[in-house]
Amino acid sequence: MSVPFVAVGAVLFTVGAVHARRHGTAGRYVAAAGVTTGVLLVLTAVFDNVMMAAGFFDYGREEISGVRIGTVPAEDFLYPLAGALVLSGVWQMLGGSRQSKGHTDD
Q1: What's 97's DSSP letter?
Q2: What's the whole-model pTM score?
Q3: What does DSSP assign to residue 99?
Q4: pLDDT tens digits for 60-102?
Q5: Between the N and C ends of the chain, which has fewer C-beta atoms within 10 Å?
Q6: Where in the sequence is the domain holding 17, given as residue range(s)?
Q7: Domain presence at residue 105
Q8: Would you list the DSSP string of 4-67?
Q9: Which letter does DSSP use for residue 68 in this model?
C-alpha cells in the first residue's frame, strides 16, 4: 500500500531536484531533504517502538512483511520517507526558501 506514495514522492523529489539544479541550489536541496528524511526516520523508529512496546497498537503477521526494526515493521518507515520526498519536492517547486546566499532579512 505504501509503494504508490513512495513512487509519487520519488517523482516529486526528482522534479524538485531538477528545479533546484536550474536555480543553482541542488546541493542545499539534497542536503535539506536528507536531513529531514533522517530526522523523520529516527523519530519514527523511536516513537513507534515506544508505542508498540507499550501495547498501543500492533500489526497482524499477515499484514506485514515480517521484517522488523525493533518492534516496528519495516513498512512503517515508508510513510515518513514518502512524506519527506513529497514535501521536499513540493517546497522546492513552490519557491523554497527564496533567500539567496549571504542575504538576510533585517
Answers
A1: T
A2: 0.79
A3: P
A4: 777 788 888 888 888 889 999 999 999 999 999 998 765 555 5
A5: C
A6: 3-93
A7: no
A8: HHHHHHHHHHHHHHHHHHHTT-HHHHHHHHHHHHHHHHHHHHHHHHHHHHTTS----GGGS-S-
A9: E
